[in-house]
Amino acid sequence: RYGGCEDTGKFMGAFVVSGGFSGRREGCRVVGRTGGGIVRMSMDCSRREMLRLSGVLGLGLVAPSAASAKVNVDIDRYGDKEMKVSTINRLKQNLRTALGENPLLLPAFIMLPVLDALSYDNSTTGGGLDGAFSYEIGSTDNAVLVDAYETIEGYRQKSKEEVSMADYFAFAGAVASEVVGGPRIVIQIGREDAQQKDPSGIYKTLSASSGYQAFKAALDRSGRDGARDAVVFHTAIQTLARIGEKRNEELLARAVDEDDPDGESVFKEKGDLTYGAVGGTSQPAGARKRRGAVLVDSQISNLQIAGSKFDSSYLKEVLNAQKKNPDSLSQFDKDMLADPTSAGWVAKYASNSKAFIKDFANGYEALSLAGSRFEQAKIRDD
Q1: Where are the alpha helices (DSSP H) in the chain?
Q2: Which distant-in-sequence residues (6+ apart) come within 8 Å of 350 by Cβ?
Q3: pTM over 0.85
Q4: Contacts for 296 with CB less than 8 Å, ≥ 6 apart
Q5: Which of 50, 45, 52, 1 is CA-nearest to residue 27?
Q6: Which of 18, 54, 70, 276 could pair covalently with 373 via S-S, beta carbons 3.0-4.6 A apart?
Q7: pLDDT grade, residue 256 (50/70/90)?
């Protein structure tokens, strides 16, 4: 069901293909021409219904071919500003709750959106963060992501709003960063989920188990600086993994006392925890407000996992191990250090956490937007 129109799977009248098309549905009428023609809908049909209908009829306006598919972003997907705020609040709260219950999900919350976004091919401008990685979760190479994916899907299914998996993925990485004291990342909301596996074939070589070379190649393919971003995202993932493991061990050590059934909160809470202040002042320095974006001062940066610190100390340990005990390094780290360009970034970030944090925030935001195609068609009374 979309905006009051029931999806019956067929039109209730005739349509003409030659020179364009026209169709009639119960309460919906669409008239269009390929090549960027006119789209009209009656007011009881939503923008999402228009996207679905145009996909059925093959409109070039908003239905790209599989080979050049982009991430459709409907800035009005969740309604007006207040409805967007409500959706963002619940989405973030769900993700925060999931991490509070299981801190071991932290690294996967970054890996899911990054791997999904790396379907983007800069040469064709196809792909992007559209939820298509959901179709790859069953692969044994992605087994480490199953718990995180199923947790997110569980919250998504229970939500009143029909939040796309792509939006959940995008916010998952941002929330994971924020709850460990990392940067606050501006996320565009309104992605439409892919309805099929990514057709590019990138996931034949890219997975949660990929080594340095495959990861770097995928980043280069997406138009990023692969040598730099491989270091950035690998460091972020490893940092979150360590924070999650440490916190999980602490929770296990502090078995819940029978006299204290609620136990200790995973998060340290500071200040006002109210969600939903529109037009907040906590936008990251230098951040650009996206079209249709709503800045929500959710105070989530004040809800951090106790004792966590998001920095580049992992790289200091890697460099130290390289000197004293190189055999202890993972194969990913060995290959990363063997690349002179990546090794240079390792050295830089190891001595400059601020640069690492800045490049992580910028890189994540850029990847989350790669391939985005803002829905532009007009809707007016028929």
Answers
A1: 47-57, 81-101, 106-117, 146-158, 165-179, 212-221, 226-253, 313-324, 331-338, 340-350, 353-369
A2: 312, 315, 316, 318, 319
A3: no
A4: 85, 88, 89, 275, 276, 277, 278, 280
A5: 45
A6: 70
A7: low
